[in-house]
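We were asked to recover a plausible sequence for a given structure. The inputs and outputs are reproduced exactly as logged, with field labels preserved.

PROBLEM: sequence recovery
POSITIONS: 225
GIVEN STRUCTURE:
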């Protein structure tokens, strides 16, 4: 990505400068900064703004605006530590990346997505590294923990009675018999357990990683929201 290439040359300074148009064309203005460094890998303010603006992490849209930048940054840092340890020479499946990109553009709408990309001086191709990193991280965690999450009948019965049935009734639907949704419930319980195990694993990885968060840069984005 162009932003990363430029920042690689200027990372020692910690900022990216350009000659801004206007009354003082020779007046440099800060348009980007390094918001975090993870095991010597840079996360820029542009990275943060892009994943936020394009909703790369859908659930983050529900967060309070003031909390969202920090939560998104945590996502990016988590991915860096996972991929740094476990990715090796692996790459995300191209088909999954293309499907994810199409879904992302579809949620925003093609015209709005094009306008947002133009504002960043990017194309849709520049979104792919973010999606690749996200998908590969999710794949690594799923492969590591999905099979190890064992469940028993008592857990399935409890989920059916305490979660599934109330959720269906809240939607005004008649709950299906437990036997009819057994596979779905089992898969959901395994997913929740795998997520919990993955979160604990990532927490331990972060303790071992070299993570520097530059609050002055993060503050700039918070103030712009």
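RECOVERED SEQUENCE:
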């Amino acid at each position: 990505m162009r932003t990363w290439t430029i920042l690689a040359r200027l990372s020692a300074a910690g900022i990216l400068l350009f000659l801004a148009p206007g009354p003082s064309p020779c007046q440099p203005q800060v348009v980007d900064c390094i918001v975090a460094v993870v095991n010597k890998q840079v996360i820029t303010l542009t990275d943060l703004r892009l994943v936020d603006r394009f909703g790369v992490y859908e659930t983050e849209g529900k967060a309070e605006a003031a909390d969202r930048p920090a939560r998104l940054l945590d996502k990016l840092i988590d991915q860096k530590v996972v991929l740094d340890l476990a990715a090796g020479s692996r790459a995300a499946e191209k088909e999954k990346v293309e499907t994810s990109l199409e879904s992302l553009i579809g949620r925003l709408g093609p015209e709005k997505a094009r306008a947002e990309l133009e504002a960043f001086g990017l194309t849709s191709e520049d979104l792919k590294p973010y999606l690749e990193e996200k998908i590969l991280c999710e794949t690594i965690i799923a492969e590591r923990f999905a099979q190890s999450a064992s469940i028993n009948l008592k857990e399935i019965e409890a989920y059916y009675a305490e979660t599934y049935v109330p959720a269906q009734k809240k939607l005004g639907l008649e709950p299906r018999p437990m036997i009819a949704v057994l596979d779905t419930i089992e898969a959901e319980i395994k997913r929740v357990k795998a997520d919990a195990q993955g979160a604990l694993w990532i927490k331990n990885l972060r303790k071992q990683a070299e993570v520097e968060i530059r609050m002055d840069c993060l503050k700039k984005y918070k103030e712009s929201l």
